[in-house]
Structure formats: structure tokens, C-alpha cells
Design goal:
Elements (H helix, E strand, L loop, with lengths): L2 H17 L4 H14 L2 H10 L4 E2 H8 L3 H13 L3 E6 L2 E6 L2 H14 L4
Length: 116
């Protein structure tokens, strides 16, 4: 392949990649979501919440941490729209935001060949 044709092929490839890329706002949202789940104790919380809704007390017991540490991590996950919270009487119960969170965890585990 001649140099000019080779460059045109690479330019076309780069242009297709650029056009298929999400907009900057979406990229920032995605980066924030990955940042929210990137901390080990937050990942433990997400794995615990796969079992269903839990209050802070049960999450604390499941992940082996303190209530204040879990509450801090829950706030970050809630702000990242990774989990939801709802009031149940005097308790606040937490759950995964939706099935996509489970899918992301499953894919990551599959990629890294870890137990899910």
C-alpha cells in the first residue's frame, strides 16, 4: 500500500473512532461512575447489595467495616447514581440502582476471571 493510501486508511479509522465516541458530558459521567465503584470498600458494598435491599447495619456486618465508614461510602455511591436509598420507617434501606450495575460487576469479574 502506498504511503498516501496508508495515511487515508488510518485517517478514516481515526475519524470513525471519533464519530462513534460519546460526547464529552457522557464521558465525564462515565468516568465519575467508574471512579465511584473503583474503591475496594465500595465494591464490597455493591457485592453485598446484590443480595437485595439492606440497611447500614446489615451492610456494615456484611463488609466488616464501621458504620461511619460504610455511611461515607454509601453517600459516594448514591451521588454517583450507583445505588438508591429509600426510607422504610426509621431505617434507610439501600439497593443497587438497577440491573446495569450487576451487569457491570459480572462483566468485570468475567474479564478478570474472578468469582461472581
Amino acid at each position: 500500500m502506498k504511503g498516501c493510501e496508508h495515511e487515508a486508511l488510518h485517517d478514516d479509522l481515526a475519524e470513525r473512532a471519533r464519530q462513534s465516541m460519546p460526547d464529552d458530558e457522557s464521558i465525564l459521567s462515565l468516568a465519575a461512575a467508574f471512579k465511584a465503584i473503583s474503591e475496594p470498600s465500595r465494591l464490597k458494598i455493591l457485592f453485598a447489595l446484590r443480595q437485595g435491599e439492606m440497611c447500614v447495619y446489615h451492610i456494615t456486618r456484611a463488609v466488616g467495616s464501621t458504620q461511619s465508614a460504610v455511611s461515607h461510602q454509601l453517600r459516594i455511591l448514591r451521588e454517583g447514581h450507583i445505588i438508591r436509598a429509600r426510607r422504610d420507617g426509621q431505617n434507610i434501606v439501600y439497593s443497587l440502582a438497577d440491573a446495569h450495575v450487576v451487569a457491570v460487576l459480572a462483566l468485570a469479574c468475567e474479564h478478570l476471571n474472578c468469582a461472581f
